[in-house]
């Protein structure tokens, strides 16, 4: 007996309406794959023999998502979706024309054949269709590959990667997300055609790579490195993999240490990228002393700049870039020296109280990925940081100029004019308050300003 997939009411309604009007229709791709794996699909895509305009004629509310590629978004009302209005992408069976740039076909033509449509898809596990009448349509062995935990191209792998080189990175991403392996012919084609990733936009690379490193298996970045993929869009990681750490604190290369750190932080985009890039500057900052011990002086400072450049290269937004850059810059704070409450207060003023939990996540993961050398001290150091953070937090601290009990208007009443001198005065006051929080009272600050102005 074939598998029964429970479709959402809206998808079942669309398929039923298309069938009533004489057209074939199926759910297709990732939703079939995920359903067979017992996962809950996020998207339910539908493929049909109806043309986009025939789809528009059948349904009352549609959006022209991509008519030239055969896609119409159908809006299903609450009565038929079982929920609030829900949108489903409905795409006509397609046959892609010639690919000239490893990104997109020169032209797309519509087809009446489900087989032809499934034939153009990337991997067998994504090339299955389903409706309640026929069950799972599996022409290329997708169900067997799911059972084998295998990512395998539909047809000839080199042809699929010629069509869209991003599929080379997608193969690793699916393997990471699903915990699968990649079959050997597919791997071989990936290695041979990795260079074509140069033709893919940074935005598309970023989307796939982010899904890879925020999966349950971020260590699959190692496969991307071994196949020559990271060399194309993240050569800094290749340098990290090639850089040893002959230092008592470490037992892995920079790259392998980085992978361990990534595995030890939550599946959050900022944290995984901060983990990936926290030691990105070690290859360029490495020095070796007369005893043969490696050192990486100033790598957090240099690394923060490299991290910013990499995040911009991958077209990340400014906020995500700034958060990653900040965590890279401060990830080593407090290591190798005594820390006091004043130092922690100043550190939090730079880091931002709201970023402390992320900082600690990176710091603890970094420790776990090191050797056993000096571990007791490192554990105590982390405990001390946490304790001091709680102390500062309970002070209701003044950590930025906006938190001062005095502002520019108050300074103007004291005779100061807007400009650099006023900014310098506010910085001076904040500096004093960071050392002694009890000074953050209006009268005390006014007294300090008057004293400063009298010199």
Tags for this entry?
455 residues, alpha+beta, seven-stranded mixed beta sheet, two-stranded antiparallel ribbon, 24 helices, 13 strands
Could you characterize the architecture of this molecule?
By secondary structure, the chain is α+β, with helices and mostly antiparallel strands. Helices cover 51% and strands 10% of the residues. It contains 24 helices and 13 strands. The longest helix is centred in the last third of the chain and has 20 residues, at 375-394. The N and C termini lie far apart (92 Å). The model has no long low-confidence stretch (mean pLDDT 93).
Concise structural overview:
By secondary structure, the protein is α+β, with helices and mostly antiparallel strands. The protein has helices at residues 9-20, 30-36, 52-58, 78-81, 114-119, 142-148, 157-163, 166-178, 184-193, 202-213, 221-226, 230-233, 235-241, 254-263, 269-277, 282-285, 299-313, 318-330, 341-351, 356-368, 375-394, 408-413, 420-435, 442-454, and strands at 25-28, 46-48, 62-66, 71-76, 86-92, 94-96, 108-110, 129-131, 135-137, 150-151, 181-182, 287-288, 294-295.
Topology:
Blueprint: H1 9-20, E1 25-28, H2 30-36, E2 46-48, H3 52-58, E3 62-66, E4 71-76, H4 78-81, E5 86-92, E6 94-96, E7 108-110, H5 114-119, E8 129-131, E9 135-137, H6 142-148, E10 150-151, H7 157-163, H8 166-178, E11 181-182, H9 184-193, H10 202-213, H11 221-226, H12 230-233, H13 235-241, H14 254-263, H15 269-277, H16 282-285, E12 287-288, E13 294-295, H17 299-313, H18 318-330, H19 341-351, H20 356-368, H21 375-394, H22 408-413, H23 420-435, H24 442-454
Parallel strand pairs: 2-5, 10-11
Antiparallel strand pairs: 1-2, 1-8, 3-4, 4-5, 6-7, 8-9, 12-13
């Amino acid at each position: 007996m074939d598998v029964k997939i429970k479709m959402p009411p809206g998808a079942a309604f669309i398929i039923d309406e298309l069938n009533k009007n004489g057209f074939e229709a199926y759910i297709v791709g990732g939703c079939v794959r995920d359903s067979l794996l017992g996962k809950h699909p996020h998207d339910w895509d539908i493929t049909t023999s109806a043309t986009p305009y025939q789809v528009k004629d059948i349904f009352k509310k549609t959006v022209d998502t991509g008519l030239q590629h055969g896609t119409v978004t159908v809006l299903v009302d609450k009565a038929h979706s079982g929920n609030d209005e829900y949108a489903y992408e409905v795409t006509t069976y397609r046959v892609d024309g010639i690919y000239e740039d490893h990104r997109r076909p020169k032209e797309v033509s519509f087809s009446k054949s489900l087989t032809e449509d499934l034939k153009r898809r990337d991997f067998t596990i994504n090339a299955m269709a389903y409706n309640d009448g026929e069950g799972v349509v599996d022409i290329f062995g997708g169900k067997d590959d799911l059972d084998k935990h295998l990512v395998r191209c539909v047809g000839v792998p080199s042809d699929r990667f010629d069509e869209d080189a991003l599929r080379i990175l997608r193969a690793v991403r699916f393997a990471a997300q699903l915990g699968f392996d990649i079959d050997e012919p597919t791997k071989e084609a990936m290695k041979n055609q990795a260079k074509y990733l140069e033709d893919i936009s940074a935005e598309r690379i970023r989307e796939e790579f982010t899904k890879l490193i925020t999966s349950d298996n971020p260590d699959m970045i190692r496969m991307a490195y071994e196949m020559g993929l990271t060399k194309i869009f993240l050569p800094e990681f290749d340098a990290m993999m090639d850089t040893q750490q002959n230092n008592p604190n470490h037992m892995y290369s920079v790259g392998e240490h980085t992978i361990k750190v990534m595995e030890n932080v939550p599946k959050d985009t900022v944290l995984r990228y901060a983990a990936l890039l926290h030691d990105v500057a070690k290859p360029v900052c490495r020095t070796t002393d007369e005893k043969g011990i490696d050192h990486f002086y100033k790598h957090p400072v240099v690394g923060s700049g490299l991290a910013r450049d990499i995040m911009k290269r991958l077209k990340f937004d400014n906020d995500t870039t700034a958060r990653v850059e900040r965590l890279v810059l401060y990830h080593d704070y407090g290591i190798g020296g005594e820390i006091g409450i004043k130092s922690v207060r100043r550190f939090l003023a730079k880091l931002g109280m709201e970023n402390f939990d992320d900082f600690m996540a990176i710091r603890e993961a970094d420790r776990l990925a090191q050797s056993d050398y000096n571990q007791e001290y490192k554990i105590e150091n982390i405990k001390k940081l946490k304790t001091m953070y709680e102390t500062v937090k309970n002070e209701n601290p003044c950590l930025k100029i906006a938190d001062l009990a005095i502002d520019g208007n108050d300074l103007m009443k004291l005779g100061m004019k807007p400009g650099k001198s006023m900014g310098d005065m506010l910085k001076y006051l904040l500096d004093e308050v960071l050392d002694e929080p009890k000074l953050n009272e209006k009268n005390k600050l006014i007294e300090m300003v008057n004293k400063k102005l009298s010199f």
